[in-house]
Amino acid sequence: MSRIGKLPIPIPAGVTVNIAGDNVTVKGPKGELKRTMPAEIKIAMEGTNAVVTRPSDDKKHRAFHGLTRTLLANMVEGVSKGFEKSLDIVGVGYRAEKTGDKLTLRLGFSHQVEVIPMPGLTLGVEGNNKIKVSGINKEDVGQMAAKIRALKPPDHYKGKGIRYTGEKVRIKPGKTGKVVGRQ
Q1: Considering the entire predicted model, what is its pTM?
Q2: CATH homologous superfamily of domain 9-80?
Q3: Tens-place pLDDT, residues 83-105
Q4: Quick one: DSSP state of residue 168?
Q5: Which DSSP helix (H) or strand (E) runs through 133?
Q6: ∠ CA 113-120-88, rounded to 5°
Q7: Which end of the chain has less Cβ packing within 10 Å, N or C?
Q8: CATH 3.90.1300.10 fits 83-164, yes or no
Q9: Calpha distance 2→65 (Å, rounded)
């Protein structure tokens, strides 16, 4: 039995889960999320918990069991608390500004880079070198943060670029000088 899949999902107060065949709709104080789950996996409400079950121990069913439970748990957490990812900008002259709902980044290029958030996401700036991506869909928050990081990934020689908060960047040593006496 899947260790993750067999855990019940507690549904907090103020969150409603509607199950119509394969389609699951979760509504909460922060918004509403819809998703089509695999047809073989069954989702049922037992009191204030949602329980995910599989029909057999087939390899496909085992794989979908834990996945379906995690997707549903992320939907419930998203509409109740929301998700957030933080990014740090490291480098002299590198900065971020919020203009309307867009994000304007100066990353050492000859031009400024404008980032438009995906629908349902908000971009925030703390100071000029911290970016916060927040929303109710965990996948979209992670995807938007990855797109921003990909604009200027951390350099492994100087450490400059955009990185996740808490990400460790291993700095490589540069070239060594010429050996004296050899040509």
Answers
A1: 0.88
A2: Ribosomal protein L6 (3.90.930.12)
A3: 999 999 999 999 999 999 999 99
A4: -
A5: strand 130-135
A6: 45
A7: C
A8: no
A9: 7
